[in-house]
Amino acid sequence: MNDMIAIYAIVALLGVPLGIYIACALSTQPSRVDTLFRVIETPIYRLAGVNSQSIMTWQVYALAILKLHVGLILLAWLVFMCQGLLPLNPDGIPGMKWDTALHTAVSFATNTNQQHYSGQAQLSHLSQTFAIVTLQFLTPATGLAVLVAIARTLLVARPAGTVKGVGNYYHDLTRTVVRVMLPLAAVVALLLTSQGVPSSYQAAHQIEMLDSQVEEVQSIPLGPVASMVAIKQLGTNGGGWYGPNSSVPLENPTPLSNVIETASLTIIPFALLIAIALISGRRRLMMGIGAVMLTFSLISTSVVVSSERMPNAALVELSQPGANLEGKELRFGTDLSALWGSWTTQTSNGSVNAMHDSFNPMGGMMLLMDMFVNVTFGGVGVGLIGFFLYLMLAAFVGSLMVGRAPELFGKPLETREMRWISLAILAQPLVILGLSALTVAMPGAAGTSNPGFHGLSQVLYEFTSAFANNGSGFEGLGDDTTWWNLACVIALMVGRFLPMLVPLAVAGWLAAKRTAPAGRGTLPMDSPAFMGLTAGVIVIVNLLGFLPALVLGPIAEAVTQGF
Amino acid sequence: MNVDMKRQIAANDDVLQAKASWGNALRFMVVMAVLLGLIYPLVTTTLGGWLFPEQAQGSLVRDVSGRVVGSSLVSQTFVSDEYFIGRPSAAGNDAGDVSGSNLAPSNISLRERAQADANAIAQRENVSVDQIPVDLITASGSGIDPHISPEAAELQVARVAQARGIDEATVTALIDQALENTGWLGSPLVNVLRLNVSLDDRFPVSSTTAAPLTPAPVISTASDTME
């Protein structure tokens, strides 16, 4: 209980000043810390040959994102396949096969960090840092940059025609990385090292077991682990150094390290509510959004916590009665494993400190639902962007309900906008359910490790996690096959770029339109009633899309078990 | 509209002509990869290794003679009666091959494995199945959980004391010394390797190697998959 209080307190108390700081860091106004950070930023701009003061239209901004990401995917793909020939490989790990390498590159370039490999055994120190840590900084920073660009364009009221662009991608990205992510990650990395997370470039220890009757040697892989785990947690990335992620004592050694890592899951997504409130000046709107998110979050966490406190159905009468400890670490117990599971699926982080495959059915179902919604705080930047997407749909529905022409912040929502908004929302059930159906239908493609209803849940979870850019899994799944790798690449790409770039485009289109003055019939977007409508739209859209699939998976599993 | 504003707008229009070129994107990528993928890990890893040398190298445990016998963060396999055993592992207690069982509660294999583990424990400790704490029959998430609950340690005291020919109070006192997480966070747990090393340090096992062996506990390797 103390741990849980500490985690919530850290997020609440540090999140507010962090939000104020982020708003400051991303502002184009001069500030006191400029001189300090320009030492790093100016050489970056100069070496890259970019003018950080220039302004991009939304089209150029989006193009800059896509071009950088094509480069990053190719670079990472190459590093993974050639790691056997490259330096920083003390354990002599060979290159990855092409499809696993492609999936890994795309998975990390989309802020997903879904892993079809075990890091400590299949990636060199160079791959883990040069390829992966780089992406773990740049992808959340991209989400944050796009969010700020949208906020500047959509939320700040300005007369039509005066908005010439949405900002400069390289400026926003560099500021986020240098002023926000790097300092935070460095502090967290040192704190984690103090708790026992390895920080070393040495090869694995090989140790004979103490019991002389056990003639086995255990290996203890090391590496610059702490530096990766820090940004893995802070950047809603989730891809860990070791296969089972932060359940591994070397990646999450103590209750204190668990408090730090759990708080790191949500601190930036939470702080962004405050940052955007300051940047846009729409405090009531952001408070309303925060209230909806907090409500969803508390519901999810209490369901998962109470589910995991119940015994595992397979173990009844084989021991003293107890909670579901299968797949969980004792130093966290079931409550802190459930809290982590709930937060990691809400925030699209996807790191785990317990095995979700072995959660009780109701707990597992809640994790799936968190990922369907995906805007309960959500990924760094993209969580709020996703919320804006739902907000646009709610504004459309709400305007029609009160008999007005649909509008958003005084700008008319017309056919072009609504077509793209609908596409971005409908792509989710289409891709997840379509690919799941295909996988189950093809003989031998699914690779499920658990029989019956839970097998279907494993397939559904994998594609949901890919589309939500989450990265966690029901990890018993035999997912390192060409089919799984390529099918997930599709879900990863669509799930990342469509819901992120459509709101940017809508913001750009709306900025060019004339603002209608607010009248008596105008829908007040920051009212509790409208927030209730938005929450309702989120729930209804997701239930319509996924309830049948949930009935066939976790609900059927729960019913056949008796709870 | 005054001249300054006109100039401002003209300047704005000029900047808007700026394209997102491939050259800028690729150069930016290389600069960032060097900063974030090489310099940042190098700086934090060096600093961490210098500030916390023990923790940074895997928290190694040494016996009384200074020999490295393991890591306090990685469980080991114990089969002899002289040692406390840890939780079932789907990874053979090898940190190079970490894994949970990933068995769903609805999977019959999970019940079969737990049944076998529970029977083996009941036989070895001479207790009935319903006295076994649940952590001893559930595989951890990592497969290298170094801890057991104080109750699970208590269950094994009689067997270990008898195998080593020492009295139970001595063993119980060593359990108290091997407790971790006794502070404000977490709940107290026994580090199995630390406990066994302290037993070996005080009562070397070489004097009791003649003790008869019981069958090895069933170590589950139900997971055939990877992350």
TrEMBL record, chain A:
<feature type="transmembrane region" description="Helical">
    <location>
        <begin position="6"/>
        <end position="28"/>
    </location>
</feature>
<keyword id="KW-0406">Ion transport</keyword>
<feature type="transmembrane region" description="Helical">
    <location>
        <begin position="285"/>
        <end position="305"/>
    </location>
</feature>
<keyword id="KW-0472">Membrane</keyword>
<comment type="function">
    <text>Part of the high-affinity ATP-driven potassium transport (or Kdp) system, which catalyzes the hydrolysis of ATP coupled with the electrogenic transport of potassium into the cytoplasm. This subunit binds the extracellular potassium ions and delivers the ions to the membrane domain of KdpB through an intramembrane tunnel.</text>
</comment>
<dbReference type="Pfam" id="PF03814">
    <property type="entry name" value="KdpA"/>
</dbReference>
<feature type="transmembrane region" description="Helical">
    <location>
        <begin position="176"/>
        <end position="193"/>
    </location>
</feature>
<keyword id="KW-1003">Cell membrane</keyword>
<keyword id="KW-1133">Transmembrane helix</keyword>
<keyword id="KW-0813">Transport</keyword>
<dbReference type="InterPro" id="IPR004623">
    <property type="entry name" value="KdpA"/>
</dbReference>
<keyword id="KW-0812">Transmembrane</keyword>
<feature type="transmembrane region" description="Helical">
    <location>
        <begin position="423"/>
        <end position="446"/>
    </location>
</feature>
<feature type="transmembrane region" description="Helical">
    <location>
        <begin position="259"/>
        <end position="278"/>
    </location>
</feature>
<feature type="transmembrane region" description="Helical">
    <location>
        <begin position="371"/>
        <end position="402"/>
    </location>
</feature>
<feature type="transmembrane region" description="Helical">
    <location>
        <begin position="533"/>
        <end position="556"/>
    </location>
</feature>
<feature type="transmembrane region" description="Helical">
    <location>
        <begin position="130"/>
        <end position="155"/>
    </location>
</feature>
<comment type="similarity">
    <text>Belongs to the KdpA family.</text>
</comment>
<keyword id="KW-0630">Potassium</keyword>
<comment type="subunit">
    <text>The system is composed of three essential subunits: KdpA, KdpB and KdpC.</text>
</comment>
<feature type="transmembrane region" description="Helical">
    <location>
        <begin position="483"/>
        <end position="512"/>
    </location>
</feature>
<feature type="transmembrane region" description="Helical">
    <location>
        <begin position="60"/>
        <end position="80"/>
    </location>
</feature>
<protein>
    <recommendedName>
        <fullName>Potassium-transporting ATPase potassium-binding subunit</fullName>
    </recommendedName>
</protein>
<keyword id="KW-0633">Potassium transport</keyword>
